[in-house]
Amino acid sequence: MITKALRIFLGKHFSPFQFRNAPDYFPDCDVPNLGLYVHIPFCAELCPFCPYFKVRAEPELMTRYLDALLQEIDLVAERTGFSGRNVNSLYFGGGSPAIMINDLLTIRRKIDMYFNISGHTGIELHPRDVNPAAVKKLRDCGFDMASLGIQSFSSLLLSNLGRPAYDARGSLKLLAQGGFAAIDVDLIFGIPGQTTVSLRDDFLKAAEYGATQISTYPFMDFSYTQNKHKPMDLRQKKILLECLLETAREAGFSRTSVWTFGKINVPRYSSITRDCFIGFGPSATTLGKQDFKMNTFSVEAYIEAVSGGKIPTALRHPFSSRTRKVYWLFWNCYNGFLSKKIYSELFGSGIEKDFPFALSLAWMLGIARPGHEGWKLTAYGSYLFHIVEQHYTRQYIDKTWNISMTQAWPEKLFLY
């Protein structure tokens, strides 16, 4: 209901969003502020709570994946004509990207053949994969940001998530000594058995052991995950979110997005909020000027498509001019700020001209406040977005990923 109402009210789009099969398709990405993402789907163990596309690591499959990934980068560069193209960020996610630690430099060198990375390069890490040799290799590959998926320092809460306990403290301290510009720690709130005391303890430990940013995500149950326990309800999560806000202030962290807190004057780690981006690897998405596309979620289908000289696009959604702007609004609300300058550069129009009624209503309801540079969400607005984002995830992402994980090349997908 929430997503449908927003689709009609903001996007003036009365029919469901339609994704259709689009083999070998690649959108126009000749835009400013372009980012890159590489998805490495392999894990030593498959955590039951994790919704992202991942498969168990097998050496032979990883070797064939690497060959296909390098070829996909070649294909995209050839298709777009990019050579020396400036991009403002590069992120590796998964999966557990560091499980291929010895191949990361090869991937980076291939990317550097076509793209000039002017900004930060980040990677998601599992505590199990962090050791002194790995930290050195990551720095040698040019990574200057790292995100450590700790989830909780409590062995009881990790058990409730279905995840073994690792030396999270030792892993975080190694990263803190590694010369990274930013170290993000992922924590989950709303885990069964979690209290404000245990959540506060997790946050303060992350800060003490070297985190420059702490991302706190609500525990959500997806239809295809294998969670033994269900998440807490909205009321319980609200109490925990209020605890996080108070603890962050106490620890000297400021809110940098709905669920993220960072130290002042430290670069922000974020792999999802980009105006436009190109994704490489199975399940990776690409957001262009007027299109959104997803690669196949099947590693075997991905390898077969790329080996045949085709872009491994499984589904494509062409935006209308209006819905493309709404998509930008949504993810910048996640950041808590709507920049007039960035909006104008991307769309050649003014945000207040395009959304006069919605912004006026947000002001009257205390959701956002205008400023010289743009619109900033209030604490109340951020809480409302906290609710909307969870609903969006269940209504859109759950359905999309569930179908994509069972069908390598879906014919179509409707999101209401």
- CATH topology value of the domain at 20-263: TIM Barrel
Strand order of the largest sheet: 10-11-9-8-7-6-5-2-12
Estimate the helix proportion, in percent.
Answer: 40-55%
Mean pLDDT comes to 94
Q: Could you name the CATH homologous superfamily of the domain at 20-263?
A: Aldolase class I
CATH class of the domain at 20-263: Alpha Beta
SS strand fraction: 15-25%
How many angstroms separate the termini? Answer: 9 Å
Q: Identify low-pLDDT runs.
A: none
Could you characterize what this model shows?
This protein is of the alpha/beta class. It has a domain at 20-263: TIM Barrel (Alpha-Beta Barrel). It has helices at 2-9, 59-80, 104-114, 132-140, 155-161, 168-176, 196-209, 234-251, 299-307, 321-335, 340-347, 351-354, 356-364, 379-406, and strands at residues 17-21, 34-40, 42-43, 55-56, 85-94, 115-125, 145-151, 182-189, 213-218, 253-257, 260-263, 276-280, 285-287, 291-295, 313-318, 337-339, 368-370, 374-377, 412-415. The strands form four sheets. It has a nine-stranded mixed β-sheet. A five-stranded antiparallel β-sheet has the order 13-14-15-1-19, with helices on one face. Strand 17 and strand 18 form a beta hairpin. Helix 2 runs parallel beside helix 3. The termini are close together.
